[in-house]
What does this fold into?
Amino acid sequence: MEYQKDWPMSGKKLPENLIVQTEGFPTEAHKLIRRTFIVHDESKKLGMHNIGAEFRVKVTSAEEEPGKGCIHCGTCVIECTHNLERPDLPFGVFWVEEIPVDAEGNRVQPDDDEEVIFVDKILHINQDECCNCKRCVKECPTGAIQVYEERDYHSIGCELTDHRVINSALKRSRGLPMVGSAHHGALPSKITSEWLIDAAEILSPQRDNRHEYAGNMHEAYLGKRRARMKVASPIFDVNQSYGSNSHEAFMARMMGSIKLQRPFFTGEGFIHPDFQSAFQHCIIQFGSGGYGPWVELDKFAGFDIKYGQDAKKGKGGRLNGPKNDLEIALLRCVEALKTLTAPNPQHLQYSIEELPMRVETLRALLGDHKLIGADVYGTAWNYREIVVALAKAGFDYITIKGGDGSTGAAHNVDLQNRGLNTVYLAHIADLALRQEGLRENVSLIAEGGIMDSFAAFLVLLAGADFVGMGMRQLHPLGCTLCQRCHTGQCAWGITSRRYGDRIDPEHGSNQIYEMNQSWIHDMEGLAAGLGMSTLADVVGSRRFRYHGSDPLLYETFGKKEWKSQLDHVIPPTRGFSVLKTEKESYDENKSCIEENLSRISGDTLEIDVGVDKMGSKTLNLIMKEASKRGVEKFVLRNAGGQRFIGTGVKAKEIHVHGLSGNNSFSFTRDVKITTYPTTAGKTRIQGNVQVGVANTSNPSEINISGEVNDLFASYAVSGKFRVAKGGGVRNLLLFKGGLPEIWKEVNPAKYEDWTKEEIYDELLLLYQKRKAKIEKMGWDHYIDTFGSLLADRIPPVGIFGLDKDKGMGDYFMEYAQGGIGILLNLFDLPSPIGFYACSGMSAGASYIRGQVHEKQLGVGVRKEGTLIREEDRTFLSNEIKEFIDVFTKIDIDPEYNSQLLHFANRFEREREELLNEFCKIVPV
Amino acid sequence: MDVRTFSGGEEGLPPGACGLLTAIGQFKLGSVLNAAQCLQYRGRTGAGLTLKGVYPYEADNLFHFHIMFRDPSMITELEGVLENWGWRFEGKNPLIQKKCYNEYDMPKMFHYRVTTPPAEDMLYTDQISDPMMFIRKKVTEFNIKYLDDARIFSSGQDTGTFLTAFQLDDTIKVFDIYQYSDRNLSSVQAHMRWPTSSGRGLWWGPQPIALGNVSGTHNGHLSSDKSNAMALEQLGIALHVGTDSEALFKEINYLVYGGYTLQEMEWIISRKFPNEVALMTDEDRERYTELTADPILNRFKISGPTTAIVQIDDLVVALTDRDHLRPFTIGTNDRITLLASEERAVVAAAFAMGENVKIFNPDAGKLVAFKINNGVPERLAYEWKKTA
Ligand code: SF4
Ligand code: SF4
Ligand code: SF4
It folds into this structure.
């Protein structure tokens, strides 16, 4: 089969091996069309391998339907983007072949200008690739295209084993990936039918929301304690990441949310710096991949941790290599064009008791006025405990990502593993929180399979404060639910970046606004029908009834009306320290805090922590307040494992004498931190650090004069991380690729007082600049411009000396995305590292001195023997030199000190030999 | 509000993931209690202590029971049940001062000195002659049968376990733990709990979980809970609390008494990665394969976050899961050993005691064990196994 070269407007390059038949498209004016044809291309596979087309693409010819037939304009060729078999081609289902002929009708060479008089045009249709997105149908100028189900695909099998099952088996047998997107549940949703929403009648009067103050849904707050956001819409958009959505789709949704005055949830792909004027309306999501620069976090409206979502139970998100283009990689601080697989767990929280630790760290960073949220789905049996634990841990809101929800990419089996109904989950969560006396501490958002205003209202009645509708926000942008988001080929430009310009963000945002207002209006009518006047009347009132056949729903909502009060509510008699505000904590520890602050000397403050005398939060408050008063250098004496040391503190230097506790130095930026051993009374305290230290940070350098525990520098983006000794497991997890200039330059503080209108103008202005650039350069060239910015980044480096009896634990540098790890192995341990080394590393490298057995390597990496490249050796030499400079100045312990000196001597005298003792681990 | 309701009824909150600190050797009780407080942020609903040596050992057939009654009206009836089983109460004291009930909503709790029936009676009714075996069997039976009404939460010869559904300082206050400061204690296990799964109520979940002279604390929630429990079920070992943690303690007890070496116990419970097995010596791999291929022992593997510390008589066994989803730190010198789910607790305890200890974080999945010899902890080698 032969195709045309340099397809106009698509910007894609044709593969070399294709034969080029004609040039120029559309047909140049002087060429007259002699004849036209419409041809269905034969399926390339026959017999049992022929799964066949799922949809029939029918193009009507002018003969068949005069006035409505195809005019061979080629629009559909450009509009259809779907081609799974050959994603490298610049077209999808359609292509046009032109056959040049001379005046006599003989076929001639296309470049023979003299001879070419006519062309025959053939519209080819490869309907095997059609996903029924209907883009072509809506764009064809003559309405010549119809797309509908192909009977032979859908009518196989029997009731129990239908075409879905058989075709899925066939696809598996051909080794095709079983990944899907959007609605893939195996059964119809239980949220749509057989529910009755009550109405007031006789016992109390209905109200009129059109002419009176009734049913009002425009006044609410997300967050119930210090952190609150005033919102004017009970319907929220949901987390969809920048990168999975195109720039334009993301922007349209974001602007739509701002217009509706509701928070905009970013998804785990961070955000684009062009949107910094809108950060204050956005809640940034921290997914398990931790993608992003993690700077300026206090400028967002909140921070959202994704623990799970029903549509991909237990799984992390995935961005296929081609979607992770150079710009995306730059924004996410990872390496480009590598498939990004977010780990399944949130590694900083393996257990429920680590939730408050996470929240207290985030509070230290963000303060009391920013929202902190958690996304969870409805587990089979532990759901109420999880919800209660989240509330007790201090989250401001909980988002239930329930039963019929969709996603941009997940395994089909997970999509089919449909969880509990969102109405039911909202009900259970509300009851569990009420039972514990915690309901008015935390907001509940429920989402997942909410089809329309009716279902949205049901969820509110069942107990949710807000309802999320994600997929619905995409329809005004064109989404026809073709279920191909994961391919990056979305013809509507929603989940494909290249075609994003098919969306006008401003127009899209207006449509999103109108659609949501229309639903809200419906809901207000329903509320007014119940005689209610505000959202508070509605939430949890359970004025509905289920009269369907689902036993669980019938048991819960079908038998009797719910009582207004629970029988035994446990008042929260015990004050949870995580729920205390900074002010409360300050007041409680006022004398200690002020006494310490009175010791500020110039730009320096020395604090005696007294091992266990000072609480973590008190220490943090002292440091934050001192930094506001101009302190830039902190010296902490007798640290006894206080948590989150330095988080949220703006300082240039922090010196910790003693043990730094869990999550210390997390989210720090541009600071030099050093720990030291110390002696308190008779007890020698090593300069060690505990779990999760320096996570998600951008320090200038951190020097640990002892050993680290697990997850050291996990998610860290940039900086030097030196550790005198060894560590536990999962150190340098998801180590990123460096902080690019664009993220160093952002200054969202500038926009804090801007009005919405000013923000729109700024967003549109920046978008016009971007669009003009793309149009001028073409997409591929535009994206290529980010290459040099990527190359300019300085990747983070983690360098460990290791100890006499402890090397580096398992899963070192797991999923690393560009950073460099070095193990010096000062004590010449025969086996310096554990197992699964660098497993899932997509970029970066690890240099290890000593024996690393192939079996110790993780998945997707390989070992290179002796370092032969000069740049490797120079890089390593510089790092080693700095390491020696730092730690020879610190008294760690006699044995270590002398071994370090021995190593330093060898480095001076036998440098080449010593460097030969390193191997390098790199991604395959 | 009645205790039953407060306990969460049938659907209350329980077993959990938490903070733990164990001290063995020569120490001051007060220092351990103070140090344990720094882990309180890990716990919310439940705090417990097991003190070894809190009661003087008197005889092989004399045990100290701590019993909590959910329903006070059942006390007499349930005491009758125990007596009908042939047990003799040598004494009964309230465990908690009356005034504490004014402040806290708690089940009624008593301390009983109990002697087991003569050997021939135990053989006649239960085919058991060993008093300890009899206690373990019957306490389990009682706790399962009367789980809605009462729980024997301590049943050792010289140990005492003290639990509340509150926080550690509440537990200390309620039981007036400082009154035991002058006792000749050889170990203290402290546990602060944050429940993670549905169970039988707040009061039924706190740890240490104690049965006879075995007491254990666990931080984490096992994804292998069902598998572990099924293995024990097929061995005829019943769970009386019913949690993942209890199953783990019983596995360890079974393996210790089964004469397995520490190394073998580690292989069985914290199963190695396939590539580690590939790098073992042939001899080790053969034994490893033999053990892990055993259908019961195969189900003993734990998955999910774990730091566990189990005391069995004078032996303390501790381990983490192979993935090291929980931290674990040990500090030791020639007088004391401190084991904790955080380095911070070890440092705080050592500081409070004025001790200098060598601190280390055992590698992922490593099992460590200590034996208390004349009040002094001694680290046991991997080859160690219990001999009859
Ligand atoms: S867009 Fe319509 S008219 Fe144009 S080539 Fe395609 S089918 Fe024919
Ligand atoms: S419906 Fe979509 S996929 Fe199918 S031919 Fe038209 S544009 Fe292509
Ligand atoms: S976003 Fe695009 S690819 Fe995804 S379902 Fe909608 S139309 Fe299809």
Notes: Confidence is low (pLDDT under 50) at residues 1-17, 196-200 of chain B. Chain B touches chain A through 54 residues (CB under 8 Å). Chain B is about 30% helix and 25% strand. The first strand of chain B starts at residue 19 and ends at 25.
